[in-house]
Amino acid sequence: MKNSVKATLIAIAVAIVLLIVALAFALNQRAAPTPPEGAEQQTVRTDSHVLDDGGEGAVTVVEFLDFECEACGAFYPVVEELREKYDGEITYVVRYFPLPGHINSTQAALAAEAAAQQDRFEDMYHRLFETQAQWGEQGEETPEVFRAIAEELGLDMAAYDAAIADPATAERVQADKTDGEKLGVTSTPTFFVDGEKVVLETWDDPEQAIEKALNG
User: Fold this and answer.
1) 196-197: strand order across its sheet
2) What is the CATH number of the domain that holds 150?
3) What are the start-end ranges of the H helices in the chain?
4) Within 10 Å of residue 73's Cβ, how many Cβ atoms?
5) What is the reported pTM?
6) Which residue windows are coiled coil (predicted)?
7) Fewer CB in a 10 Å sphere around the end CB: N or C, the chain?
8) Given pLDDT bands bounded at 50, 70 and 90, which one contains residue 103?
9) Domain span at 70
10) How far are the Cα atoms of 13, 181, 211, 216 from residue 36, in angstroms, in the given order?
């Protein structure tokens, strides 16, 4: 009887988590605007942050993300599994798309970009998702939280502070978002596989798109 009750409670907990993620994703959705005629559309630029470089012939996977987005946080372990499974076969690129409804989303992106200037983007990327529950859904921005994470990572704090204060860092974050808007991105996470937008309905959709690109 105890095992049956425990199994039921676990099933209910999993269902609640999936419902929360689904609601978060739905709330971030809005009708996709039509990109302006003649607007430049690029899924990857020379300064885009590449987590994995599969080399020539690899499938390029691009994720537009918001570090505060619960759906992005839920997809984070899925993405890590894909990176491991397709190591050497895909080039995985991360781009910023902070949503206005998330108070700390821009601060988190600035922290990631400041870390990137010290070649520590991936370290900050992991820590932001690992600590999302601690700083997400706040009533006001908490830049001190991200500064503490930078200290934990052992970053040069003078350089970090200078990067956060530099308008060019915010412009770099905005440049990613602008590209995303031109591509019709309206919610996070949004994935592109070899330039094609993935219709995201299930956890397996990114993997299915990768398989199609690899075998197509």
Assistant:
1) 49-52, 90-96, 59-65, 190-193, 196-197
2) 3.40.30.10
3) 2-28, 70-85, 105-116, 121-130, 132-135, 143-152, 157-165, 167-182, 205-215
4) 21
5) 0.82
6) none
7) N
8) very high
9) 2-215
10) 44, 10, 31, 30
Contacts with 197 (C-beta within 8 Å, 6 or more apart), sequence order: 183, 184, 190, 191
At residue 65, the pLDDT reads: 98
Sign for the CA dihedral angle at 14, 19, 24, 26 comes to positive
The residues, ordered by sequence, that sit 6+ positions from 165 with a Cβ below 8 Å of its Cβ are: none
Q: How many Å apart are CA 179 and CA 35, to the nearest integer? A: 10
Q: Which residues are within 8 A (CB) of 157 and not within 5 positions of it... i.e. 6 or more apart?
A: 147, 150, 151
Q: How far apart are CA 25 and CA 173, in angstroms?
A: 21
Rounded to whole angstroms, the Cα distance separating 191 from 198 reads 5
DSSP state of 36: P
**Residues 68, 136: contact at Cβ < 8 Å?**
yes
Q: Are 135 and 142 in contact (CB under 8 A)?
A: yes
pLDDT at residue 12, rounded to an integer: 45
Task: Write the pLDDT tens digit of every residue in 107-140.
Answer: 999 999 999 999 999 999 999 999 999 999 888 9
